[in-house]
Design a protein that fits this description.
The chain is mainly α and about 140 residues long. The protein contains 5 helices and no strands.
């Protein structure tokens, strides 16, 4: 009733699948986390936050096995925009750190998020009242 399959299935693994290196999930997360931290380091250095940058650089070096290249590539972006970018990058690093159970980076990322959250209104030059920050969408 059924005809046997005469050709290889597309789901059959290749004959030489072991010829190229594979990375584990942990290695992939290390690479991703180091990338997020390196981007955060660049923004942190641009903001001139030396001590915070040093702490981030230590974690990048631990993940990559070598210290990161550091230079303050100035983008001429306003400080508030840089703080928002740093906050977003720290958030991404926090998510990856949590998924790989890296407590040191998770704590560092959370601290950086808090620091940038506090710095955004000051950098923008406008302190928002607490009621404006907690206003619900659609509330009158």
């Amino acid at each position: 009733m059924y005809e046997p399959i005469r050709s290889k299935s597309v789901h059959t693994p290749a004959d030489h699948a072991g010829d190229f290196p594979h990375r584990t999930r942990e290695e992939e997360l290390d690479i991703q986390l180091a990338g997020h931290l390196a981007a955060l380091l660049a923004v942190t250095d641009e903001l001139g936050l030396g001590e915070a940058g040093d702490r981030i650089a230590e974690q990048v070096a631990r993940l990559r096995g070598a210290p990161p290249a550091r230079h303050a590539g100035l983008s001429d972006a306003p400080a508030a925009a840089l703080h928002r970018r740093a906050h977003a990058l720290a958030g991404r690093a926090l998510v990856v750190a949590a998924s790989r159970a890296d407590t040191a980076v998770a704590i560092l990322s959370a601290e950086r998020m808090d620091a940038h959250t506090e710095a955004i209104p000051a950098a923008a030059g406008t302190e928002q009242p607490a009621t404006a920050r907690t206003r619900l969408v659609g509330a009158h």
